[in-house]
Amino acid sequence: MFFASDNAGPVHPQVMDRLNNANDGYAMPYGADPIMDEVREAIRNLFEAPEAAVYLVATGTAANSLALACYAPAYSTVFCTQVAHIHEDECNAPEFYSAGAKLTLVPGTDKMTPEALRKTIEGEEVRGVHGPQRGPVSITQVTERGSVYTLDELSALTAVAKDYKLPVHLDGARFANAMMALGCTPAEMTWKAGVDVVSFGGTKNGCMGVEAVVLFDPKKAWEFELRRKRGAHLFSKHRYLSAQMAGYLADDLWMKTAAMANRNCARLAEGLQAKGASFLHQPQANMIFATLPRSAHRRLHDAGATNYIWEGSLEGDDPDEHLAMRLVCDWSITPDDIDTFVSHI
Amino acid sequence: MFFASDNAGPVHPQVMDRLNNANDGYAMPYGADPIMDEVREAIRNLFEAPEAAVYLVATGTAANSLALACYAPAYSTVFCTQVAHIHEDECNAPEFYSAGAKLTLVPGTDKMTPEALRKTIEGEEVRGVHGPQRGPVSITQVTERGSVYTLDELSALTAVAKDYKLPVHLDGARFANAMMALGCTPAEMTWKAGVDVVSFGGTKNGCMGVEAVVLFDPKKAWEFELRRKRGAHLFSKHRYLSAQMAGYLADDLWMKTAAMANRNCARLAEGLQAKGASFLHQPQANMIFATLPRSAHRRLHDAGATNYIWEGSLEGDDPDEHLAMRLVCDWSITPDDIDTFVSHI
Amino acid sequence: MFFASDNAGPVHPQVMDRLNNANDGYAMPYGADPIMDEVREAIRNLFEAPEAAVYLVATGTAANSLALACYAPAYSTVFCTQVAHIHEDECNAPEFYSAGAKLTLVPGTDKMTPEALRKTIEGEEVRGVHGPQRGPVSITQVTERGSVYTLDELSALTAVAKDYKLPVHLDGARFANAMMALGCTPAEMTWKAGVDVVSFGGTKNGCMGVEAVVLFDPKKAWEFELRRKRGAHLFSKHRYLSAQMAGYLADDLWMKTAAMANRNCARLAEGLQAKGASFLHQPQANMIFATLPRSAHRRLHDAGATNYIWEGSLEGDDPDEHLAMRLVCDWSITPDDIDTFVSHI
Amino acid sequence: MFFASDNAGPVHPQVMDRLNNANDGYAMPYGADPIMDEVREAIRNLFEAPEAAVYLVATGTAANSLALACYAPAYSTVFCTQVAHIHEDECNAPEFYSAGAKLTLVPGTDKMTPEALRKTIEGEEVRGVHGPQRGPVSITQVTERGSVYTLDELSALTAVAKDYKLPVHLDGARFANAMMALGCTPAEMTWKAGVDVVSFGGTKNGCMGVEAVVLFDPKKAWEFELRRKRGAHLFSKHRYLSAQMAGYLADDLWMKTAAMANRNCARLAEGLQAKGASFLHQPQANMIFATLPRSAHRRLHDAGATNYIWEGSLEGDDPDEHLAMRLVCDWSITPDDIDTFVSHI
Fold first, then answer.
1. If phi over 0 gives left and psi between -120 and 50 gives alpha, with beta otherwise, what is residue D307?
2. Of C74, C227, C229, which has the smallest distance from its Cβ to B130's Cβ?
3. Which one, B96, B182, C15, C264, has least CB within 10 Å?
């Protein structure tokens, strides 16, 4: 009953197989392996972007920070939400990789709205050389609170960015989960919606540790390569990143695992609802933010469930007080796990 | 009728004299000039801090950024208000000098409150290595909106910082104005109130371009020196920084010019009040935020007054609409200027 | 016949098995996996350093840069050879991670000598605040040209460093190859010889992508953790780094693969010598720098051998001109490969 | 008898006068003062570069570091000599401002030769993404050892840079001294000779603390402005930088003071030669590197002369041992000083 995160589950067997199969003989290092050629081609096809620059790194923070650094000069500021992973969970990596750019927080509790974004952008750089310059807008899809922007919502945000000629980064650590929730194509959720660069996540959705960065403007390619190397994120035995991604893409595995994760989440949400849980908002992808009474939390805890108490504490006198929890499902969660979990509430 | 800022007036004659007097013969460069020995001694005496490390730089941004960099590791965050100069007006200099530390904004419109500070600190670093570590608290005295923290207010803020073992930086670009408003000593407004490092401003109060950084912990001295040199802020002909500061300190000139600026401001506030202006808050030092009808603004503008319209625009149909303005007085403003200004309202 | 590098061969089956075995169920992320506990313990035991801080990263450049950053302030300079990997092959990563420290090159062609090191250190920082401050000494073992420092040579270098109170970093990308060449213990080649922090390589010696950083001073632990996270080198699914290292350490595999690589190299050197090749110096570990006539290079190339021509070019009129080559063996090279290679000369 | 440096003498009265005259009324801050308009125009005229971007900063290190940062990406390397000020005397400021670029040292003892430059450039970046990319070439004129490149020598160096499409920076801390030695125009010594950006020194030649940065490509202007502000080098009371430069340029003062300094140096060299001193090379501008017996050094020291012993020490048994000294003259040195100095040898 592991619902703490989607970064703790096993690698999908198909990815593991591909890794094992790749482990034969010699392959040119540093991205010159033939599997990477295959991966690059596959991702360009997927995104209907034959010119896109495609690179692999091993962590989501590297994907985000390197992508942003190509678009955020040191004297600029990145626009993101108050709960963005790049703001809260990367220990200043975006600031590090951009040599000291700022992050300007767009008010709001989860999804960024075009109005809030516009107002925030307007609030910056009205002072010439004195304040930071307006830099990229970074959007997270699936959001950190489990919401999914519709294509229209995405386009509305990028339209604001374009009004100010600002580039747009999409943190797609859970790209596949969002796409399956929307039922759209990768192109529709990225460049067709105005996105310039996307972190296309693999780790949370069945891989071991691999994320693709897709830059739709190939003129950024060489800068990205240099930044990746300088950041110590270029793997010598790169074929093992390539192989993960190749296994992940083959036979649409990435869509299948995302669909599984989303289905798991829906089943869990249904069970929670039946037990009277209340939701921060209706779960759309593979994350749930819901509240349960402390007594229910305690039963779950005692039964061995692993998940984060988001607000409040198991310690406390009142058994009826509602505590918020975050529940995340990856592809590997079984219906049995879910049903057992629900049964303990 | 120049009320746009206190960074545009002339150098006080006494400072200029000292500069001219210093311009004789040869002096060892890079801070080894004898006038610097005199200045160091004078500042240590003023602050009742015989061990303090004292350094001069030429800009307030350099003073703030270098001071903060000694206390804010790259993986930390600095706590300041939303309108702090270090946040809004230094083009990411604090981020640059700290190699990418973050600035966490304490909500509020001007003065920081202990409650807001505590809540903001509590909100950071509850995620171990994932979020930035809590770093220094930076307080501006006089604030960017012209308020002056009382000694009790300062101590209440530093007490919160100390609860979390966080160092405290005081941005004292208008240190003297605040001190004269409070009627206290330099020591009372700094280390006795829990401040670890202060930017002691000279430029806005009668100098040409000089700020002292006073580090009450002398163990930081060598690091500061190296950071200053590496930041290209160590002057070869340093005696001309020393001479400014020496002239500024002699015969308590710095207190006199601050008192003059504050008196000018009070006279101006009185005049404005008589004319029906409304104030953001009661002016305490040398800055006023007040509103006047557009028609009055236009008359002032036509009469050649120089000041910032803070909110709104001279252009506009309604002559009665109130527009906010910022008015700053330095020591050099004359009663005549003020009275003429008021007469145009 | 792949002799281009030891970064292009397969992962050893025992490491792969451990990876596959680790791929079961859920494991706490970000280094909190139980396999990491096992690895930490094993490395502390190996190094006879029960207090050492032990961390895993995925690339050698990350290991070096993060380790150095903990010891090299931005206003300091790192001492290394002209051919050090940190200087030539990391695209300014050490400069990046240290926020702009310099690398001062100790003259010489391969091994650093105590005399050259001392002279170079003496040449730096005789100018107070003006030049960079003396920072860590970084030694590569096995060197970039395939030499192995004896324990006495290592101690002589670290003694010079200690004379100036400078910390010592050991780039051990080929740590195991050196150790097997010397027949010593990990402790003897590190802290007993005066090393403060070591990059303990796995990738080139049978792993997929994992390096341990061992800091013998545990007071540096938390700083390292923060730098690793900020550098985007903390893996969420960390167990797969742990599992690689666990498989690598089990049953002394790491020593066995290194011994295999060294034996392969010795066999190759013998074959080359019999064919009249001349050596830059006598191969000691798993790298050979040797010269052959252009005609021999061409035959090898036509036969499908993969290796670097170090100086000169296959193109050229004179078939007898000698061209330098670099040959590297990892554990996976077979005697047959070697003999075939030699037969083509 | 002050010959230690040209950074310790007084400000020329004409510059001081202009400073005093500028000290009247109010002037728009941050470079918007009318004197700056005058200075910009004057420098563009001087350099026959009507489009050039012209900015003022207060230190030579700021001028060099900011100029280089506009041309040296973080993943590049700057080519300079082993004794370049940017390498030896700026405490890693160029590395800081460029976010970690490297400095690659062109071998040689003083002047850079085209052959050495070409060979050094060739030695860098033959490894794609692994090594740093080739960045700007930085040339110092007058060199750190007092030599002056002829126009042909300059052009030969920049021609090498252009062969590799590398930009060229000229560190002109002693620009005027070189120009007077050559008898050429500012344009001839800069853009006509292939220079892209120049640090045009004022401090060492009669100013208090001001250097102009002239970027011949105006497309770099805004980036420079942002970098200057972010580096805390934009002065609020900017008119006092402008006034220094205006006073310095008026009536060709800058050429006169340089000519005076050079003449002083020639007189000193003549005197030294008559006393049997031997020279590192024939003095051309305002610096002398010469050797004298220890006994002569002692006599000078006892007579109160201030200068650097470059190699060796006053302490020592042998009165006849020759010690190298550096002697620098600024405009303010008097013939009497020089003659007295020589008389003590």
1. beta
2. C229
3. B182
- D positions 126-185 inside 8 Å of B (CB): none
Interface test mutation site (partner D, options C92, C97, C104, C109, max chain D beta carbons within 10 A):
C92
Domain(s) of CATH 3.40.640.10: residues in chain C: 13-253
pLDDT in tens, chain A (345 residues): 899 999 999 999 999 999 999 999 999 999 999 999 999 999 999 999 999 999 999 999 999 999 999 999 999 999 999 999 999 999 999 999 999 999 999 999 899 999 999 999 998 656 789 999 999 999 999 999 999 999 999 999 999 999 999 999 999 999 999 999 999 999 999 999 999 999 999 999 999 999 999 999 999 999 999 999 999 999 999 999 999 999 999 999 999 999 999 999 999 999 999 999 999 888 999 999 999 999 999 999 999 999 888 888 888 889 999 999 999 999 999 999 999 999 998
Among A89, A100, A129, the residue with its CB nearest the CB of B95 is A100
| CATH number belonging to the domain at B255-344, selected among 3.40.50.150, 3.90.1150.10, 3.40.50.720, 3.30.470.10 | 3.90.1150.10
- CB-nearest to C29 from A8, A61, A236 is A8
Chain C residues lying within 8 Å of B228, measured CB to CB: 129
Q: Where in chain A is the domain with CATH 3.90.1150.10?
A: 255-344
Tokens of B244: 């400014």
Question: Nearest residue on chain C to A93, judged by CA atoms?
Answer: C230
Over the stretch C222-252, which tens digit does the pLDDT of each residue have? 999 999 999 999 999 999 999 999 999 999 9
Q: Classify domain C13-253 by CATH number.
A: 3.40.640.10
Query: Which pTM does this prediction carry?
Result: 0.97
Q: Which of C2, C20, C21, C26 to mutate to test the interface with A (most CBs of A within 10 A)?
A: C26
